[in-house]
Amino acid sequence: MDKANTLTALLPMKRHSERVPNKNIKLFSDKPLFTIILDTLLQSKYINQIVINTDSDEISSILEKQYSNNVVVHKRPKELCGDFVPMNEIIKYDIQKTNAEHFFQTHSTNPLVQINTIDEAITKYIADIDNYDSLFSVNRLQTRLYNKKSEPINHNLGELVRTQDLEPIFQENSNFYIFSKFSFYNTGYNRIGKKPQMFEVSRLESQDIDEKEDFIIAESIYKSIYSYYES
After folding, report:
1. Contact call for residues 212 and 20 (beta carbons, < 8 A)
2. Which residues pair with 54 in a beta bridge?
3. Residue 147 lies in a domain
4. Residue scoring higher pLDDT (21 or 211)
5. Angle between helices 57-66 and 33-41 (to 10 degrees)
6. Which of 115, 131, 137, 192 has a 20 to 30 A CA-CA distance from 201?
7. Biggest distance spanned by C-alpha atoms of the chain
8. Tell me: the pLDDT tens digits for 26-46?
């Protein structure tokens, strides 16, 4: 596997958003939300193509006017539209229409992930390709967890261990997934392969936008605290 220009980025975006209306095109620091991660992906030294799958005429129009030479648009077929279509079915559709072997998939709702993090994750995927078939982003959790019966999951109530000394648990944060066409098909159309590796992302970068409150938090970070990464 070559060490440059090796991956196609997949950035699926639907028109309808149930919890935040028109979320993908809602202005985020004076720009449509989806353009934040798109502009970041365009900086990667490992991504040579960006595929956007969408059913939104407005998103397609913005892409045609501002990114016509940089992205490929897949118009989402009717059978793949709606809130209950599995993401893996959309990815399967894009892979079948794309001449590529390795993929980096992310979402427009992850505007805070940085290019250095993306390229570092891709570098790790490439370096470990003989040992792992995929990579996905996670957050480290070191806190006392309980199940719905109020029973401890990862600690002993009779032994008050400091949280920083607890065995870490890792949470899939949906920031990004890296995988090959072979791995995707080999698992029955899953982004996480049979031999995946995890890649830790900071909580600041992994802020995801699902609710209105998430939008406010992410935009505030982007406008203020996030300047730390640019200094």
Report:
1. yes
2. 13, 75
3. no
4. 211
5. 40
6. 131
7. 63
8. 999 999 999 999 999 999 999
What are the structure tokens assigned to 206, written together? 């992994």
107, 37 Cβ separation under 8 angstroms = yes
pLDDT-above-90 percentage for the chain: 72
Q: Give the total residue count for the chain.
A: 231
Answer whether residue 144 is part of any domain. Answer: no
Q: Which amino acid is at 37?
A: I
Give the per-residue SS3 of the chain.
CCCCCCEEEECCECCCCCCCCCHHHCEECCEEHHHHHHHHHCCCCCEEEEEEEECCHHHHHHHHHHCCCCEEEEECCHHHCCCCCCHHHHHHHHHHCCCCCEEEEECCCCCCCCHHHHHHHHHHHHHCCCCCCEEEEEEEECCCCECCCCCECCCCCCCCCCHHHCCCEEEEEEEEEEEEHHHHHHCCCCCCCCCEEEEECCCCCCCCCCCHHHHHHHHHHHHCCCHHHHC
- Structural domain including 70 reads 7-138+171-230
Tell me whether residue 164 is in a domain: no
CATH number of the domain at 217, please.
3.90.550.10
Residue pair 105/121 in contact by the 8 Å Cβ criterion: no
Q: What is the total count of domains within the chain?
A: 1
Q: At what angle do helices 33-41 and 115-127 cross, to 10 degrees?
A: 50
Averaged pLDDT for residues 70-79: 91
